[in-house]
Amino acid sequence: MERITLTRTERSPEVDFDFASGRLVLRGESYPEDAAAFFGPLLHALRGHLAETQASPITFDVDLVYFNSSSAKALMNLFMPLEDAAAEGRPVTIRWMFSADDDVIQEAGEDFAADFTHARFEMIAGVTA
C-alpha cells in the first residue's frame, strides 16, 4: 500500500499514513467542507491495507486540536476497522493526544475510547498539534 501524505490546510489535518511502518498520523484541525470526500480515500486505503496484511502492528496517532461533528463521524469510521482488526488479533494502538488544558478534546477522546474493547486506546496529555 502506498504511503499517503497530505499537508495540513486551514481546514484539514496533516495526514501521514505510512502503511509500511504501521504508523498512521492525523495532526492539526479538521473541519473540511466535505469530510466524506476528505476522509473517504483514507478509509478506503486503510481497509485495503488491513485486507492485505494480517499481523503487523498499527499505531494511529490522533493529534487534533479541533474537529467538527462530520470529522468525528469520519474518525469513528477509521477507528472501527482498526477495532475489528484488533479483535482478530492484530496489535492496534490508538494514541489520542491532547493539550493538558483542553477538556473538550480530552473528553472526546474518552468518548471514543469507551467504544473500544480490543484496540488499545491511549490518552496522552500534554501534546499539541
Would you mind describing this structure in some detail?
With 129 residues, the chain is an alpha/beta fold. 37% of the residues lie in helices and 30% in strands. It is built from three helices and six strands. It has helices at residues 35-52, 69-87, 103-113, and strands spanning 4-6, 14-18, 23-30, 58-67, 92-98, 120-125. It has a six-stranded mixed sheet, covered by helices on one side. Helix 1 (35-52) runs parallel beside helix 2. The protein starts with a strand and ends with a strand.
The overall pLDDT, averaged over residues, is 95
Q: Structural class, judged by helices and strands?
A: alpha/beta
* Radius of gyration from CA coordinates: 14 Å
**Could you state the order of secondary-structure elements as H and E?**
EEEHEHEHE
Number of strands: 6
Strands across the major sheet, in which order?
A: 1-2-3-4-5-6
Biggest β-sheet: count, sense, barrel?
6 strands, mixed
The shape is globular
Beta-strand portion reads 25-35%
Low-confidence stretches: none
Terminal residue distance: 26 Å
| Count of DSSP-assigned helices | 3
Query: Can you give the helix content as a percent range?
Result: 25-40%
